Amino acid sequence: MPKKLDYKLTDEQLETLEQAIRQEKDVRVAKRATSIRLLHQGHRVEEVGEMLLVNPVTIYHWYHRWQANGLEGLRDARRSGRPRKADEAYCRALEEALECEPAEYGYEFAIWTVERLGDHLAKETGKVLSQDRLRVVMQEMGYVYRRPTEDLNHAQDQDAHDQAEALIEGLKKGPNEGILSSSLWTKQP
Fold it and tell me: Which domain holds residue 125?
């Protein structure tokens, strides 16, 4: 017969779990910490599995990982697989490109689009990312797209601008004070 496990935690361990449940960004770690706390509170493994919609064997697995490595044991291990194309060098090149105007690289356009940025980075780094993946990388790095603001003050006729300002001021003062109506129907005073 297997040895019965004692799920009681020290005050320090319990505080670590409580903090992880409240502040952990990875919801999987928070869920696993919750399962350990529920075991500490006296719930059976089967009950905890039912509450969290997890197989009881998984709850045992989480508990043993907690016992062996603490909170770090509740995190997912790095998965093997192909390394990211957007490595540190790629991200550095991306930051450098976004800090400069495209003209500084000899381009004839004035605004970086995702497509243009991807093409530029492919030339610089030799790594080609899809536009969707490049958007995700940029979002992970904290970049957001905003529309360019166009300042047309240099193209304005200053006299026409002053006349329009005077007209607006007249409209603010009251109706029909020396301003002709543009309506076809007017009421006689």
Answer: 88-140
